Every structure is written in C-alpha cells, then in structure tokens.
Amino acid sequence: MELSDLMEKVYTLLTLYGLRVVSAIAIVVIGRWVAKGITRIIERLMLKRKVDETLVSFVSNLGYVAMLAFVIIAALNKLGIQTASFIAVVGAAGLAIGLALQGSLSNFAAGILMIIFRPFKVGDYIEGAGVAGTVEAIQIFTTQLKTPDNKTVIIPNSKISSDNIVNYSTKGTRRVELVFGIAYDDDIDKARQIIMDIIEKDERVFKDPEPIVVLSELADSSVNLTMRAWSKSGDHWNIFFDTTEKVKKAFDAQGITIPFPQRDVHIYEHKTDHIGETYSLDSNQ
User: Fold this and answer.
1) Low-confidence spans in the chain with pLDDT less than 50
2) What CA dihedral angle connects 150, 154, 157 and 159, to 10 degrees?
3) Integer-rounded Cα radius of gyration of the chain
4) How far apart are CA 97 and CA 255, in angstroms?
5) What is the pLDDT of residue 220?
6) Which of 117, 106, 105 is nearest to 158 (CA)?
7) Domain extents for the chain?
8) Average per-residue pLDDT in the chain?
C-alpha cells in the first residue's frame, strides 16, 4: 500500500470520526462542569433552608452521579455506540440489586424521611423501637442512641420510623410526677404540707405553673397523694430522685407512715352437731 493511499484512508477516518470524538469529549468536559455547577447550587439552596448536612451531602453526591451518567451516555451516543442495550443492562442490574437489598432500601428511605421531617435531632433524648436514649447520630441506614447506662444502641431506621417516637427534648420542659402513699390513720393535710414544703424549696422547680399536691386515690392499703411540678427537661430525673428521698426522710421524722400491702386473715369457729369441729376461713384485703 502506497503512502498516499494510507494518508487518504487516515484522512477519511478522521473526517468521519474525528468530529464525533471531539464532540464526545466536549460533551463529557462541558457536561461534567455543568453537573458540578448544578451540584453546588443544590448544596447552597439546601444549606440555606437549614437542611441536615448529612442529607445535603447525600443528595448532592447522588445528583452529581446521576448527571454524570447521563453525560456519559450522551457522549457514547454521539460516537455512534448504541446505548439502548447498555441502559437495559444497567436497569436489569439495578432491579436485581434492589430486590437483593430490599431491607436496606427500606432503611435508606426511612433515613431520608427522618432527615427531612426531623422528628428528632442529635442530642435529643427519645424513646422509640422499645429503646430510650440520647441520639448520637442519624445516618442513612441506622440511628445511634446512647442509653443512660452508657450503652450504644444502633437501630435500623425502618424500625424506629414505623414505631411511636417519644421525644422528651422537644419542649424543653417536663412535668415531674410522684405518688406517695400514707396510712389511712395519718393526717392528709400534714402529709400534703410536708411534700409542698420540700418541692417549694427546690430552686429547680418552676413557680409557674405552680406545683400541686392532690389526693389522687383511696387505694387498698394506702391513701395516695400525687405531686406534680414542672422543671427543665435536664432536671427531671434529679428532681425525681431527690424529692423521693427527701419526702421519705421527712415522713419518718414527722411520724407519717408509708404503708405496705398487707392482708388480714380472720378465722371463725363454727360448732356443729356432728363429731368434730369445722372452721371456715374468711380473708379480707
């Protein structure tokens, strides 16, 4: 083959495919630049609306990958490569992966919804999926809690989102409620005043709403007085434990009895005409 013939064939190939290659490269370069620009715009808009940073990062990365895949398919199509079969293969693979990871995808969807609607945030004390603790991390697939005894609990997002969620930190205040039982022979007004004196001296307890002590129940073995007082959420348990101890000590000092459940058994003797004696047993609570 002569050099002139070879050059002519090279020129023909360049004429036919050179512009396509240049166009494909231009599509990839420009498309990548545009995808990055759109991703930055999405990030700024989401951060401006105070969307969780985890969701911002995930959405921006997912959007960039999707746009980049579209750019690559467009470039391949420009080169004359049939992309229909390629898209079908990718779609079939995606379906197979989706079926295999069905549980993980449900956790993923639940994580996205929790990040968007924010039923709780990091640092909140919540109860959900049968576990109570402080939220340490909200991730795409799982939520991490720290229990009061310093254990780490990792809960799948689909499980926690499908159950009732109790958020104790949302309002910032909580009501402390304690029930104290006294004997039926004890002075109700005296016991009430002892409890009120203790709770009113506690600076952690709010004056408004005003704390109250009411007679709530005439139980089987005791007369029950219920104390209700409001405080900051962070002071709830300290007030609960401190007040319980102080009331017990004050009751002991003032002669107020805290009864325990008991049963009185009465035995009655019945004489009959038959030989021997029979006894009936009558037990009263």
Assistant:
1) 278-285
2) -90
3) 37
4) 72
5) 86
6) 106
7) 3-100, 118-167, 173-254
8) 82
pTM of the entire structure? 0.60
Q: Can you name the CATH fold of 3-100?
A: Helix Hairpins (1.10.287)
CATH class of 118-167: mainly beta
**Residue for token digits 């209700």?**
228
151 in Cβ contact with 101 (< 8 Å): no
Tokens of residue 275, six digits: 């030989």
- Token pair, residue 271, equals 């004489």
Place of tokens 């002590």: 213
CA 137 to CA 62: how far, in whole Å?
21
Cα separation of 142 and 156, whole Å? Answer: 4
Above pLDDT 90, what percent of the chain?
A: 38
Measuring CA to CA, which residue among 105, 111, 195, 124 is closest to residue 155? 111
Domain 173-254: assigned CATH number: 3.30.70.100
What DSSP letter does each residue of the chain carry, written as one string? --HHHHHHHHHHHIIIIIHHHHHHHHHHHHHHHHHHHHHHHHHHHHHHTT--HHHHHHHHHHHHHHHHHHHHHHHHHHTT---HHHHHHHHHHHHHHHHHTHHHHHHHHHHHHHHHH-SS-TT-EEEETTEEEEEEEE-SSEEEEE-TTS-EEEEEHHHHHTS--EESSSSSEEEEEEEEEE-TTS-HHHHHHHHHHHHHT-TTS-SSSPPEEEEEEE-SS-EEEEEEEEEEGGGHHHHHHHHHHHHHHHHHHHT--------EEEEEEEE-SSSSEEEEEEEE-
